[in-house]
Amino acid sequence: MIIMASDHRGYSLKEELKTFFNQENIITIDVGTYSKEPVDYPDFAKLGVAKILEGKSNVGIFICGTGIGMSIAANRNPKIRAALCLNNKMAELARRHNDANVLCIPGNLKKKKALAIVKIFLTTSFEGGRHARRLKKISGESK
Question: Is 131 assigned a catalytic role?
């Protein structure tokens, strides 16, 4: 399941991505915001994180003005690995090396570029191996 969250500056891109997902029969849950009325991104990052943690295979796409605020807010939870991705390579490596479960993007990305990043993020698998060892160190499970 794809959990989507945005602030007012990410609202338009979120709606464009939802239209694409609907056309592809991909299920999404939108936790807001639902307009361009100014809101605080941490509130929606928190709602999105809560939904992601409800299901083991849930991933998130969080959008704010720069993507930075959403990534910082989402990463406050130790079970979230939110990655700000500005291009295809970053999206690929966020999944392959970091097993990111939240993609953060800026709201001003063009739809075509955003879709390319999203598709790579959603179709790339975690490599494991030395990367799994590193993730354990990040989570405090290993030294």
Answer: no
Distance in angstroms (rounded) separating the CA atoms of residues 83 and 73: 11
C-alpha count within 13 angstroms, C-beta hemisphere, residue 34? 3
Whether the per-residue pLDDT at 98 is higher than 90: the answer is: yes
In three-state secondary structure terms, 30 is strand
**Count: domains in the chain:** 1
CATH of the domain at 110: 3.40.1400.10
Catalytic-labelled residue, pool 4, 97, 102, 104? 97
Residue with the two structure tokens 């690995």: 81
pLDDT in tens, 26-69: 999 999 999 999 999 999 999 999 999 999 899 999 999 999 99
Q: In the prediction, which pLDDT does 56 show? A: 87
